[in-house]
Structures are given as structure tokens and as C-alpha cells.
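Lecture 7, part 2: worked example. A protein chain together with adenosine-5'-triphosphate.
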Amino acid sequence: MLSSEIQLRAFLERQSQLLQRERTAEIERTSLLLSSCSPKLLEKKGLALGGLGVVGINIGLGGKSLIELERPSAYHSTQLFPPHSFRTGDLARIAEHVSVSVPKKTTAKSGKKPTSDTQGVEGVVYKVLKHLILVSDTRIVIAVDSSDSAEDFELPERCRLLKLANSVTYDSLLIDSKNGSHGQSTGVLNNLIQVLLGIIPPSSKNALPDLQYSGPIPEPKPKRGSAEIALIHGPPGTGKTHTLIEIIRQLVAQGKRVLVCGASNLAVDNLLERLLPHGIPATRLGHPARVLSVLHPATLDAQASRSEESALAKDVKKDLESAMNSLTGKGKGRLKGPERRKMWEEVKELRKEYRKREGIVVKTVMAQAKVVLATCHSAGGRELLNARFDVVVIDEATQALEAVCWIPILKANKLILAGDPLQLPPTIMSTHEKTVKKDPAPKNNEKNHPQRLGWNLQQCLQGHINQNSPTQITVPPSNSSESQLPNTDPTSSSSSDSDEPLIPEDSELSKAVPRKPKKTHHSGVLRPSRSLETTLFDRLERMYGLNVKRMLTVQYRMHARIAEFPSNTLYTSSLISHESVASHLLTDLNGVSETSEPEAVADVLGFPVVFFDTSGCEYFERLDDDGSIGDEGSRCNENEAALVKTWVEKLVQAGISPSQIAVITPYQAQIGTVDGMQGREKEAVILSLVRSNDKREVGFLKEKRRLNVAMTRPRRQLCVVGDSSTVSQGSPYLKSWMKWLETHADVRFGEV
Ligand SMILES: Nc1ncnc2c1ncn2[C@@H]1O[C@H](COP(=O)(O)OP(=O)(O)OP(=O)(O)O)[C@@H](O)[C@H]1O
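Predicted complex, written out as C-alpha cells:
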């Protein structure tokens, strides 16, 4: 039996409720931090920069105001910024400066109430500029997305920059239907959407073009049944991303238009980095500040400014910048009173004109793009308004909230998801709400009104779910592949391309999978999610199982010894190491053995797994915090860091290039975190566990999925640095890992 209208309602209501909770939790967290810390403490923590002045304003793509801030010499003895944590892509607010030496409620001079921390102008850190000689930060640029209807934003002469949490994400997912939508046309309910909601079953045939990796594109096979969705499920290193790249290459060769998404900017950059060598014309959407700099030439910004049409917009841009500077610029040139109002009107007109001209440029670039890349979230941006794609591909789909996945899904006719539920899950704040006992189907009352449901999918279902009578929707019988609901999608190409398989039965992918479905019963019924941690990938796997899924089991990354522990403990020993990697070592890297001292080769490079056990060394961790906001601060362990540094130096001396090495930990205060490495790999990875204490506390290390990502990033060597006696007390899983390391790694104690 497939989903009934009541089940649909229950599902949507539950998603909406979970998103609301999440948004509240995120906002509470940010305001708690901002309100409970004094300005001085926020600056000390690197979460605020005080006493800043506006240097100037430029205009970026989309009419964004790029506000440049510095420390004016009038207020500071040095222009160099103190240590801070602002990085490109962070959300930030420019507020009025508050003196750090007085209590928060009053300002020093006037005694009048200061601008609240929730007032001011919000934007994204566009870039942080360094002093050329001192190589220290001296300026910061904030991109503010001001619409032409926006109020005049008056920047204070003396500003304070505050780092914000990412709560805006939920604002754009939870849409009040009174106030608009993502710009999706309502009423579109194509076969893909119906399958995802369990209104019709997936078509019986599976799923992807033939995959002869990187070879010539195969001839299209005779047409078979339609396939709306495909899941690529695989443990670390099994080539999920690699497979997606090949699929995209083949889809493009067939003349298809593809939207390629990831849960994070990193996931999208990872895909783009791997697509470019194939010469596939791709356009990366999103804030350039959030895109890796080597990939900037592929961004929409860069492609737009290179296009012939861009000259049209440049003149208006110049006028707009000069007008903005006289409004919000510094010093005496700053306009006041009626003159200011007049100039602001002019700015609005200029911005409108600039948008119009820029719109033409963007449209031209987008029309040429066969492959568009964006985070799921930014696929809802202006650039893709009303855009349609043949296929949407989402990598790292097990790290994305279901609601976020729907943003690109509503623009396509087919969907391919890749992921691994045993790697990083979506980040959720409202943890105390994670489990809910039972979700009663909502009754037919005002609770179900669409304005309350608010979720973007709700826009789509208007007209298909009758608000007053649950009996008026017609759910087709389960053996029917055609919905009785009208397909109102005018651009739907289902009649022309629905015959294309998404995963062919004779591909390498399908050979890796037993063809007989497991006994598990996949009902195809939509059930409300227990928490936001249930991803679309999990839900579809549960609903349709092997009918839509392909499992990858051969890994092409790690030495077999590195893969052994995760395989045995998380993947029922089913992870097979391909012979091309099963015994590869750092010594086999090009040129390394010839240039290295034989001693270094023997001592440093010759082991796939090394374990520095600091147990008994008293290398105690430290809380990177003064304890003012509870016990939430990040941890660091300086002695461990020194050990890591020595090992890195030994690797480099032995001939390994620094770009082939990554140092990762679960804690930001120590160095780059595990989360930043999902989807990536390095020849040598050093994993610093940080935790070492008398209380046997292990914090983040308990999270199996995070640890799984961490230990599966290396190709040829994993070096673990940690205190086995603290760590092994953390959980049975950690205990077995420590035991495994003691038996199978090259164990060294304390000092290098
Ligand atoms: N079929 C293949 N033949 C040769 N090399 C492959 C193949 N599939 C993947 N690889 C290589 O194996 C490594 C891992 O692949 P990829 O990053 O695509 O895996 P993944 O499943 O996305 O990994 P993870 O989930 O751990 O991020 C890469 O270096 C990739 O080039």
C-alpha cells in the first residue's frame, strides 16, 4: 500500500514542526552567546572586532554591497587586528561599537542605550585582507545582500563586527505562504515528487548510464523502463563521488542538463575539482567567499565578469559605488538629512538598473551552462528562478536535511543521491528533541492549514491535498506507475527521457550488488520522521530498498590495514580493498624511495598505521576557554600538537610533500576538524585525539560516524596520536579501536 493523504499530511506537518524547533534552538544558542558574554569577552574569544571604521563600499554580483572595514588610527595604536575567528563565508553583523570598558547597558559618553546587538546590518564575510609586510589582518570585507526595497542602512561611524550563527538557513526553509516562496511554480507534481512522497511507486527499472570510467562515452542502450530516483550507497573510498562524476559526464554527453548539489560548500567544491579535468563546462553558484580560491574561475561571478555583456553593467556599477560611498562612507563626505534621503532614492534606482543589466549577463551565462553546481541551499537562489534540469545529483546526501534537498529536487525530473549513513550526519542543534515517542496523524483542523505547514514542498502540494476533506485526494493503486494526479509541469520531459535508465543492470555498480532483494519489507509508505537526523537518503532506502539502491563495496583509497577496523566494525567486514591500493605505502609514492634516507624509509614511511600512545605521559588536554559560558569550549592538547608537528617534519624530511599530508582532530582549537575533511583524502593523515584527562571524558570522540570519517581519509598512512587509557574508557567502540591499534599498528610511546 502506498501513502494516503493522511500520511502525507502527517509527514509534512512533522517536518515543519522539526524545522521550527531547529530554528528556535539555533537562534537561542546565538542569542545566548551574544547576550551572556561581555563585549570584552566576545572580543577575547575572537567572536567580535571592535572600533572599526568603514573604508569604502563596492558593489558585487547581485547588487551586493561589499563593505570594507578597518581599525582607524584615531582609535587604535595599531591597524593590525587582534586574533579573531572571522573567516570568509561566516555570517556577521555590523553593529554600533560598544566600549569594552563599561557595562553593556549604557554607552560611555552619552549614557543613552546603545544599539542592541540584534540591530545593525547583517552579511557574509567576503574576505579578510592582510598587511603586505606584517602578514597580519588589517581589513575585512562584509557582503550585504540589500534588495532595492531595503531600508536605508546607516552604518555607525564606529562599528563593531559580531560573528553570527547560521540561523538564516531555517528562515528560508520555513516559508510563510503569505510572504512568498522559493520562486517554484506551485502545483507541479511530476513523477519524481510523487515517487519521493510514496504517491506512486518507483518505476521498476533501475537507474544510471553505463559506467566505463573515463573511457569513451558508450552508445545509448535501447530504451527501457523509466527511473525517477537512484541511491548510490557506499562505505568510505568506494567511489561514490567518482561514480557521480562519471554519471554527470555521460549525462552531459547525452545532451542532458544537470544540477549538481552537495550538502556543504566543501562537497560542491570537491565535485567541481573533479569535474573540471574532464573539460565539462560547469558553472558554480554561491558566494565566491565560500568557494575554494582555485575554483574561482568556474564561479558565476567570474564567468559573468568575463562575458561580453558584462560591460553593460559596469558603468552603472561605478555610479552605484560612488553613491553608496557618499551615503555610508566615512568622515565629512557623509551625507545627512534631505540630501541623504535623495541620494538613497538614487541608489535604489541605480541598483534596480544594475540588477536589470546584470540579470541579462547572468541569464546569458546560465543559458550556456550544461552543468550547474551549488549547495542544495543556494540552488534556491535568484539565479535558478524557474530553471529546469533533466537530472539533479546530490553528493554527501546523508549529511543534508531532507527539507534542504527539496530545494533542488523541485527543479528536476530525476534524482540521484550518493551517501553513506555511517559518515557525518546533518548538524542538528535541537538535540533534546531528537526522539519523539509517537506521531499521531494530525487531525483535520486548523493545525493543518498550509500557512502553518510552511515548508517549501507545501507550496508544491497546494491544490493536490484538499485542506478540508482528506478523502478528496486520489491516491493511485500501488501497482500503478501513473498517477491520477495531474502532472501540471509544463517543462516535464518525462515523455521524452523517462525511458533512460539511471543505473544500468549490467554496470559495474550493479555487479557489486546481490540482485536478490533482502527479506526486509519495503512498504513504500511515507512515515513522519522521528528527527531531522532522518535524511531523505535514509527514508528512501527504507521505503524502497534495493529497488532504487546500488551498493558499492570495493574501496579504491586505503591500504587494506587502514580499511580493516572500519570494515570489521561498521560494515560487517564487507569492505573489499581493491588490489591497486591494498598494499600501497608512502614508500611507493613517485620518487620518494630514491630521495629518502633508508633509515627514514624504514622508520617513518614503511607503516600503514602508526599509533603514538601518550598514556602515562601526562599530556593533559586544556579547555580553550575561560569557562564563562559553561563547559562548551573547544579543547586543545599542546603536547600532542608538538608530537604531531614532529611527525609532520619527519614525513616532509623523508620526501612527502606537505600538500599530501593532513592533520585532523575532532576539536577546532587543535587544528582542522574532521568535518572539513568529509569527502576528501590525503596520502598521509595524522589524527590527533586531544582528549587526555583523569575523568576519562572523551566528548566528540564518542561519535562513531565522525570517527569513521576521520580514520578513512588516508590513502597510505594513518598516524593516530592519543591517550589510550582515557580514550578506551569512552565507549566499547573506542575500547575496541584502542585494542585493535595496539595489536595492528606500529605502536610508539609518547616521544617520537
Ligand atoms: N572505479 C574506480 N577506479 C579507480 N579509482 C577509483 C574508482 N572509484 C574511486 N576511485 C578512487 O578512489 C578514491 C575514493 O573515491 P571517492 O572519493 O569517489 O569515494 P567516496 O565513496 O566518495 O569516498 P568518501 O565517502 O570516503 O568520501 C579516489 O581517489 C578515487 O579517484
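Residues 213, 234, 236-242, 420, 423, 556-557, 679, 681, 712 surround adenosine-5'-triphosphate (CB under 6 Å). The chain has a mean pLDDT of 74. Keep this in mind for problem set question 3.
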